[in-house]
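fyi for ur records
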Amino acid sequence: MIPKTLTIGFLVLGFSTIQASAQEYYGAIGLSYQNNDGENTIGNPAVDAPNNEPLDFGQTQIDLTFGARFNNGYYGQLDLSYMETDVLSIADDTLHDGTTIALRGGRNFDRYRLGVFLGYIDATIDNTIGDNKVYRTFGGIEGRYDISPKLWATGELGGIGGPKGNHGSFRGDDGIHSGSYVIAGIGYQLNDKLSFEGSLGYADGTTDDDPTYVKMAGIGVNYTFNNPAITAYARLNFTDYYQAVEDEGMSNNTLKLGISYKFGAKGTSNKPLRPLAPIVDWLGYTGGHLE
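which gave:
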């Protein structure tokens, strides 16, 4: 379950921001495409992919961000995203679509930022018996520390709720739930156009009462055009999934290409919040293939 301290944190942040009027409003819209290259590593969990045969499919995602900065460095931000997979390229056992809504708030200081987040996921997963609706809540704390003007570190510590869903007797157990995760990242600004980032992550939870583990590593590059409102990016992620009781595992390597357009003010002091954990992707593999 999501810790009660998160609710208290949002109340404190809400009370603080009520005391101050918004100084700046900002937002962004983004479009991205991700190619997934999945492979069985232990057992044969992917129904339509023999052992060690790649399971390839793509997914398109739209992201919207709206935020406001207040006095004394406080900020609030709403993240909305919708993704849909290219299900025509494969048959059963995969994620079809997913919608994520997240509310984020916190405070910027001179060299660091502290914040909390709370979100909701509505996803559709095909796990051989048909399209199943899966609902999850998630929440946690996040932060950033500027090591130098060009080098920074980020962190995200969260929890995943559930299970909730529906499909006959299906209760939403398929797909990781009732767990926690941590992601640590680092970034480097080479110049006014190029920046690089890297991250490591770990999650543990439950799927069908079976302990489930996720490990991931990622690297990325961002390029800002002459118009600083437009940014293109590429991200490469390597993720391993393992379900203990059934002793099944899969890996998934993804390449994500995207572009975003920022409008309004410069966001959180021109240091944008990093994307939250890709829980929808985790649901697709743990609920579709490892179920």
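The longest strand covers residues 24-42. thats all i got for now
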